[in-house]
From TrEMBL:
The keyword Aminoacyl-tRNA synthetase does not apply. Required for the efficient initiation of filament assembly. The keyword Acyltransferase does not apply. This is Flagellar synthesis protein FlgN. InterPro entries: FlgN-like, FlgN-like_sf.
């Protein structure tokens, strides 16, 4: 049982490292001039890895339950406290997950800044130009003067 849990942790660590690498590519894409061309395959790979990570987490929780431990972080902490190999791999996994979390937070901020910039640009383009005599409207006609 412990060997299966250790193998799952190793596989989970690899998946988190792959996820962190994809987040690095996402950072580069988000800072590029034309991110829309670069982002679709990155989003596809992220979605795939999220599925892999969810499956591995379920497997880990199942193995923990079979060993008599609670699921999730508390169970993993208990299992790791009873086995040095599990503790070492669990520590590696936690460090990789923290690194991926930092990348993801940073990318979220980049997206927020880009969206804010786009919204301000759109607002600037939509500012209503005061009607002046002699200027034509979007229909190509000069609007009638209103009697003041």
């Amino acid at each position: 049982m412990k060997d299966a849990l250790l193998a799952t942790l190793i596989e989970e660590y690899s998946a988190v490292e792959a996820f962190a690498s994809i987040l690095t590519l996402e950072t580069k894409a988000l800072t590029a001039l034309s991110p829309l061309e670069l982002l679709p395959p990155i989003v596809e790979k992220k979605t795939e890895l999220i599925g892999v990570l969810a499956r591995l987490e379920t497997t880990r929780d199942t193995l923990l339950a079979e060993m008599g431990f609670p699921s999730g972080w508390p169970g993993m902490e208990l299992a790791a406290s009873a086995d040095a190999r599990l503790a070492a791999q669990w520590a590696l996994l936690q460090k990789a997950a923290e690194r991926a979390r930092r990348f993801n937070t940073s990318n979220g901020e980049l997206i927020r800044v880009r969206m804010d910039y786009n919204q301000r640009a759109l607002t600037a383009l939509q500012v209503a130009v005061p009607q002046k005599t002699g200027f034509y409207g979007p229909d190509g006609r000069i609007p009638a003067r209103s009697a003041a």
